[in-house]
Specification:
Blueprint: H1 8-24, H2 30-37, H3 42-55, E1 58-59, E2 69-70
Helix pairs in contact: 2-3
Length: 72
């Protein structure tokens, strides 16, 4: 799965995460991130985050998305 390029939505989410971390010092919640990128379903946000994690675009400590860190 690492050979597949990220989708436009995943790039948009990565930018939103980077901006949030720069402003707040920690990752956004799934709800906050959804609001930033226009996704009302937390399940859709979680799905995208999991796919991004598989691609190596992000990582997290433990199970909480607020611990998200940017990868490549």
């Amino acid at each position: 799965m690492r050979d597949r390029p990220p989708s436009e939505r995943q790039v948009q989410i990565r930018r939103a995460i980077a901006a949030w971390i720069a402003e707040h010092g920690e990752g956004p919640s799934i709800q906050q991130l959804g609001k930033q990128v226009g996704l009302s379903s937390t399940g859709s946000v979680a799905y995208q985050l999991k796919q991004m994690e598989k691609l190596g675009m992000i990582s997290r400590s433990g199970r909480r998305w607020r611990t998200v860190r940017l990868g490549r």
